[in-house]
Design brief:
Structural class: mainly alpha
Distance between the termini: 17 Å
Subcellular location: Membrane
Number of helices: 3
Keywords: Membrane, Transmembrane, Transmembrane helix
Shape: flat
Radius of gyration: 15 Å
Pfam family, one: ORMDL
Oligomer: single chain
Strand content: under 5%
Largest sheet: none
Order of helices and strands: HHH
Membrane topology: Multi-pass membrane protein
Protein name: ORM1-like protein 3
Length: 76
């Protein structure tokens, strides 16, 4: 049943927008805000942190369910 699914897709049997998923989506954003504040918003660090948090949050959108970027973890 779970063959080929990522850890994120297996949470709550694939149901979208559950409290668990919302919490795990907010965690990277909070860590981003903490990291940005502690590095005093320095340009290179802020740029890399912003890219990382965007990638992490976009990957968790409901419309990205079972989408494989660059064929990673693809059955075909």
């Amino acid at each position: 049943m779970y063959n080929g699914l990522t850890w994120w897709e297996q949470i709550d049997n694939g149901k979208q927008l559950t409290p668990n998923r919302k919490f795990l989506t907010i965690v990277p954003v909070i860590l981003y805000l903490i990291a940005s504040h502690t590095t005093e918003y320095q340009h290179p660090v802020l740029f890399f942190n912003t890219i990382a948090v965007v990638v992490l949050v976009v990957a968790k959108f409901p419309n990205m369910h079972k989408v494989r970027i660059f064929g990673i973890n693809s059955k075909y």
